[in-house]
Specification:
Elements (H helix, E strand, L loop, with lengths): L1 H8 L4 H44 L5 H15 L11 E8 L5 E9 L3 H10 L6 E9 L4
Antiparallel strand pairs: 1-2, 2-3
Helix pairs in contact: 2-3
């Protein structure tokens, strides 16, 4: 009977048990923070890239020249953005003529990631696989 009381009062190993209970929760929270941070960096980067490309395209005199200037700007500056890769994006440009004279640059970015997608199915099954960012700028001209 005396040995049984000692076992009930023995606290050795309680920290390891508590750690094994809390560790999965901390790892999950860390995973969510990292995943959301990467996706937010991709969104901010593509939004900034489209805005800068639209501004750079204003120097063009025709629709084709504006399109080429926007694409060249994106190609030249994509390396300065973290987590954004050219092979994952599709660039489109549109132009609304007179009276609005609006030039729009759009990027459709594929945010699929094999590691994240497997876990995303468990936590966010309806999350989109493509991020769409566009920027429009008004110009004066024919």
């Amino acid at each position: 009977m005396l040995a049984r009381r000692n076992v009930m009062r023995d606290n050795a190993g309680t920290a390891a048990v508590e750690f094994s209970i809390v560790l999965p929760i901390y790892v999950l929270i860390l995973y969510i923070i990292v995943t959301l941070s990467i996706n937010l960096a991709i969104y901010i980067g593509t939004k900034q890239l489209t805005a800068e490309a639209a501004r750079a395209a204003l120097a063009g005199l025709s629709t084709q020249e504006r399109d080429q200037l926007a694409r060249n700007f994106i190609t030249a500056h994509i390396k300065t953005y973290s987590y954004i890769y050219s092979y994952k994006m599709r660039i489109t440009t549109t132009e609304a003529g007179a009276p609005d004279n609006i030039f729009t640059v759009s990027i459709d970015y594929n945010i699929e990631n094999p590691v994240i997608d497997k876990l995303k199915l468990m936590f966010a099954p309806g999350a989109p696989e493509t991020l769409h960012c566009s920027s429009a700028i008004q110009y004066n001209g024919a």
